[in-house]
């Protein structure tokens, strides 16, 4: 997941009475997912919580929604693999908050943590649910007034969902992305993957990948790390002079397939999607076919739980680009039925719900809504769901969800 600074004035959202009331056919008995949306407009920030209807994909806010937080500018969030906890990143207060998720979808704040540096902007969690990865825009000695490189922080996750002290890196509590002002790497997104082939009896190696903006060169890059059992990070050398892997001009989001075979990065400056194959060493190789075109200003990406389709949210295009993943090469090709699918204004995050993998949602920053679309699991095509869009508290930034009840999705192909 990732965050991008929003310096634009927001558009006034004109919301109909039906939309404001969250009218839909959804009841708790029909709920397949609990959906969580962070909102940055108000101070402090807010979190909307919705029920997702199993038959239509429509969203209905739970009675206590939205939840007022105690911190500013929530920009990223992730749920634990056991779906009992939600971790929210608050950019302006350098804060992580752990929320317990009730069986009725209600949120209960548990613990608050400060990151070592400033302006945390992305979060990921490992498959086992034992490690949380957070990126700080700046290392401790740097600020917006005195800018420098960023860092990755690794937190062990205790059995109750609380976070332990950051994993030590020598005498540091973080892992620098670069150490000099001649090569300033600032993170924009982070992805955690575990290579686990179908029918494997135990997970394979674990890696994290950080997409960076390079203030020194004006080019994008990816920093790759192997992840030890205790969370210690080991850099994986890339072919560039600083040990990173090339990632276009302005990387904006990053995602991997469920089995950890392929990695994808969006480049918002060049309107493209860059594809990589993940080797057993954790090194990545760009596709021989080159980047794939997106619509204007791609800034978010997700992959369906089956590992068959990629969905990219285009901020300026106000739409989603859809792609089919080649099982052998990982190369994405546009879904044949349509190049893009319209959503709200200024989509900032895109997400496929985890229960059935049948509905796609976007947070629309500029019109204060959430769009919902039905995903055809055979073709990857999208159609709008009942009563979309759905009202959000204001300037929604990102989205996550947990399944409600027992559901089974077929084994992922990639």
UniProtKB/TrEMBL annotation:
GO annotation terms (biological process): glucose metabolic process
Name this protein carries in UniProt: Hemagglutinin-related protein
Similarity-based family: Belongs to the cycloisomerase 2 family.
MF annotations from Gene Ontology: 6-phosphogluconolactonase activity
Family annotation (InterPro entries): Cycloisomerase_2, Lactonase_7-beta_prop, WD40/YVTN_repeat-like_dom_sf
Key words of the record: Carbohydrate metabolism, Glucose metabolism, Signal
Signal sequence bounds: 1-20
Gene3D superfamilies (UniProt xref): YVTN repeat-like/Quinoprotein amine dehydrogenase
Keyword match Repeat: no
Source organism superkingdom: Bacteria
Pfam families, per the entry: Lactonase (PF10282)
Annotated source species: Acidisarcina polymorpha
